[in-house]
UniProtKB/TrEMBL annotation:
Organism: Paenibacillus zeirhizosphaerae
Matches recorded under SMART domains: HTH_ARAC
InterPro entries: CdaR_GGDEF, Homeodomain-like_sf, HTH_AraC, HTH_AraC-typ_CS
SUPFAM superfamilies in UniProt: Homeodomain-like
UniProt-listed Gene3D superfamilies: Homeodomain-like
Source taxon at top rank: Bacteria
Domain HTH araC/xylS-type: 649-747
Region annotation (Disordered) ranges: 744-769
Protein name: Helix-turn-helix domain-containing protein
Segments crossing the lipid bilayer: 292-311
Keyword list, A-Z: DNA-binding, Membrane, Transcription, Transcription regulation, Transmembrane, Transmembrane helix
Alphabetical list of PANTHER family matching this protein: ARAC-FAMILY TRANSCRIPTIONAL REGULATOR (PTHR43280), TRANSCRIPTIONAL REGULATOR MTLR (PTHR43280:SF27)
Length: 769
């Protein structure tokens, strides 16, 4: 099996291509990395070596110039008559001749670059110095160290020596660089001129670089500079010098660190000047770049090998899977022949086709769920388009239409059947829709709400317009009416180009469907812009008038109000949605009033919810409101004759007549001859509010009336409505009215009318409802 795999891999063109690309890319990256590194090193040799060589040359010129100046003085003094006379004078006369020599040396050493000058008599071992004068015995002089090596001047025309000068006490030493020239008498070296340079001052003239270290060696290989803090140990420097030999520069390693070494030689002193520049900080970035390129090359090889492995693993996976399915007990790698797989694969293909058929049968449910998710905004736009391509692959790119089919008078219709029957009738309605639409349209039907279906449509024969859809919808209404004894209305939304416009088109369809309010049931309406809106004050006035009429228990007046406002709605063509909201507001108010008075709501709204009015036309809505108002007014009349109602009315009358007095719950209980607890519970049950709250609102309403219609001071008005403390009155007034009494008076007078009119109080029982 392994040999088979390997043979397959070598012959497979895709594997060969991956392998070739992997090798080419990794080789290219490696060559780029190594080439870049080599080129940078070459450029570094050119750009960095030249400045260091120049720096060494500058320092060599500085030292050569200083030595030439000192040497010229030594040569000049070796020919002076005073010095020759001193060397030729007898020993006992030398002190006299030395005086002239000392004056000469003092004058010659006046240059600040010179430390001192001395004349040594090689034969007599006497010395004359610009510092300490004449000494008959040279070994007793402060600079006596010269006597050990100055004899070499006889064979060499120039000596340069690093030495130390001790003071008379021997407590301190001065480091010197001494230049020695012979004084020739009769062809022999009779004496020597010693010119002393201060070591520190001499080398302070050298230029240094922050990143380089410089070393100076004499002809004997002795370290002349630096004298302290040498960065590299002498033994290591000896190895560096051996490796450099006579080449101007080289790369050397010292204790594992790489340096660029440069050197030059002085033609005056014979000194060797060496500089070392560490390469780590120079090559750090380029080495990192080189290593990264090599690492990328390695990564590319790993990725290529992984791709080859994964590709071949995926290629052989079906074979391995088949082998394990045929031989479940075997856990190793399949070897040899994989059996005759044709009948097995044929069987599996058949099973796959069977499962595919099942999946196709379940596709309508998937499509319906998909449409519901869009309408409920449960999925994002990316998922919308992805699932569209999966679930609707057999649909074309033609525009889409949306149709909403709603059951008229749904709550009345639903009340006539049991739950199982309703579900059966809706299923039949859905089947009829599919049969009617199928010849011309591709369709998906979704149960959007209890009373309605949303149908997504696309023409099978290209763009044919909404006229054909309207005819099919009218045909659907007729068939449903005949066979199911059910009335339905249809709204057709605007045409959209793709599925992303489904929600908007559905909203348009629902909007036009709502116009059955005026046109009645069993109609088809297509989307059109409707720009007539209901005046907000009209809706509020209608609701307020009817609800206040209920408080007055005048059923006939309320029915007349309903008829009046229904006529106005027809006359002005109010948008249906606002009419439904107004009707819902009235019905909710009726339910609240009935609940506060412990009255059972009429049967028409005993199980009321918002959708109940949404499937009615205006005539039926008007009829239902009139019936509900008449029944609730009749129950109010019965309720008004009860003993509890009369006692609460007596309490309210007592509070209205004694607003200016400081009355409370005990006074009211005493007035009606009941206990405090009985009064509280009875009042709360009848009015839905407490005695204290009701009394407070009565006082604030009376205060508002006095603020608008009189010029009494606020303190006086507070007393007139039962508040002995002005601050207490202001605090309660602001809590209820959200403004202070003064601000309320100002706004009332500036509006040229009444601000915050009190609510009508025909009976006073339903003040806070």
């Amino acid at each position: 099996m392994i040999r088979f795999k390997f043979k397959y891999m070598l012959k497979n063109k895709q594997t060969q291509l991956i392998l070739l690309l992997t090798l080419c890319v990794s080789l290219l990256i490696t060559l780029i990395g190594l080439g870049s590194y080599a080129r940078y090193r070459e450029g570094l040799d050119t750009e960095l070596n030249a400045p260091n060589v120049e720096l060494l040359q500058i320092n060599m010129d500085v030292t050569n110039r200083a030595f030439r100046e000192a040497d010229e003085k030594a040569v000049d003094l070796s020919y002076r008559e005073e010095i020759l006379t001193y060397l030729n004078t007898e020993a006992y006369r030398q002190p006299t001749a030395a005086a002239d020599v000392q004056r000469l040396l003092a004058s010659a050493s006046a240059d600040k670059k010179l430390h001192s000058i001395a004349i040594a008599d090689l034969a007599r071992k006497s010395v004359v110095s610009s510092d300490f004068g004449y000494t008959a015995k040279g070994e007793e002089a402060p600079a006596a160290s010269w006597s050990a090596w100055v004899q070499g001047i006889e064979s060499r025309p120039l000596l340069i020596k690093r030495r130390w000068l001790e003071d008379g006490s021997g407590d301190s030493r001065t480091e010197l660089l001494s230049i020695v020239r012979p004084v020739m008498v009769d062809g022999k070296a009779a004496g020597a001129v010693i010119v002393n340079l201060d070591y520190d001052q001499f080398f302070s003239q050298m230029y240094t670089h922050l990143s380089s270290q410089q070393y100076v060696y004499n002809l004997d290989g002795e370290l002349i500079y630096p004298k302290l803090n040498a960065g590299v140990q002498p033994s290591d420097m000896a190895a560096v010098i051996d490796e450099l030999a006579v080449s101007p520069f080289s790369y050397v390693k010292v204790q594992g660190q790489e340096y660029m070494a440069n050197q030059t030689f002085s033609d005056v002193t014979g000194w060797r000047l060496v500089s070392l520049v560490p390469m780590d900080h120079l090559l750090k970035n380029v080495k990192l770049a080189r290593n990264m390129m090599l690492f990328l090359s390695l990564i590319s090889i790993i990725v290529g090998c992984s791709a080859i492995y994964y590709y071949n693993y995926a290629a052989f996976r079906p074979l391995r899977r088949i082998h394990h399915l045929l031989n479940p007990a075997y856990n190793g790698s399949p070897q040899g022949n994989l059996y005759d797989l044709e009948p097995v694969i044929g069987k599996w293909v058949g099973e796959f086709q069977s499962k595919t058929f099942v999946a196709e049968r379940s596709l309508p449910e998937l499509r319906s769920k998909y449409i519901q998710d869009i309408l409920n905004r449960c999925i994002g736009m990316r998922e919308v388009h992805t699932k569209w391509s999966h679930y609707f692959h057999d649909w074309s790119t033609e525009p889409l239409n949306v149709m909403v089919v709603s059951i008229d008078r749904y709550w009345q219709w639903a009340a006539s059947f049991m739950e199982e029957d309703r579900m059966l009738l809706k299923y039949a309605l859905q089947n009829i829709m599919e049969e009617v639409l199928d010849p011309v349209w591709r369709s998906v039907c979704v149960t959007a709400k209890k009373d309605s279906f949303v149908v997504l449509l696309q023409s099978k024969h290209g763009s044919i317009g909404t006229g054909t859809l309207r005819l099919d919808a009218e045909k659907l209404i007729g068939i449903v009416s005949r066979h199911l004894n059910m009335s339905v209305s249809v709204g057709i939304g605007s045409e959209v180009q793709d599925i992303s416009g489904l929600e908007r088109s559905c909203a348009d369809a629902r909007k036009v469907l709502a116009y059955r309010l005026y046109e009645g049931y069993g109609r088809v309406r297509e989307y059109a812009v409707w720009d007539q809106d209901m005046n907000a004050s009209m809706e509020e006035a209608w609701s307020t008038e009817i609800l206040n009429g209920l408080q007055a228990m005048d059923g006939r007046a309320n029915e007349a109000s309903v008829v009046k406002w229904a006529s106005l709605i027809r006359e002005h063509g109010v948008e249906p949605e606002q009419v439904y909201k107004a009707a819902d507001h009235i019905l909710e108010g009726i339910l609240d009033i009935a609940a506060s008075c412990n009255i059972d709501p009429p049967e028409e709204i005993s199980n009321y919810n918002w959708n109940q009015v949404k499937t009615m036309d205006l005539a039926e809505m008007e009829h239902m409101l009139c019936q509900v108002i008449a029944k609730i007014a009749e129950q109010f009349q019965v309720h008004s004759h009860s003993r509890e109602y009369k006692r609460v009315q007596d309490m309210i009358l007592y509070m209205e007549e004694n607003l200016q007095n400081n009355i409370g719950l005990q006074d009211i209980a005493a007035h009606v001859g009941m206990s405090v607890s009985s009064v509280s519970s009875m009042f709360k049950e009848e009015t839905g509010t407490t005695v204290y709250d009701y009394l407070t609102h009565l006082r604030i309403d009376k205060a508002c009336e006095l603020l608008r219609e009189s010029d009494h001071k606020i303190a006086s008005i507070a007393c007139m409505v039962g508040y002995q403390n002005e601050n207490s009155f202001i605090r309660v007034f602001r809590k209820i009215k959200a403004v202070t009494p003064g601000k309320f008076r100002e706004s009332s007078k500036s509006s040229n009318g009444y601000a915050d009119l009190p609510k009508p109080r025909h009976s006073g029982v339903f003040e806070d409802i």
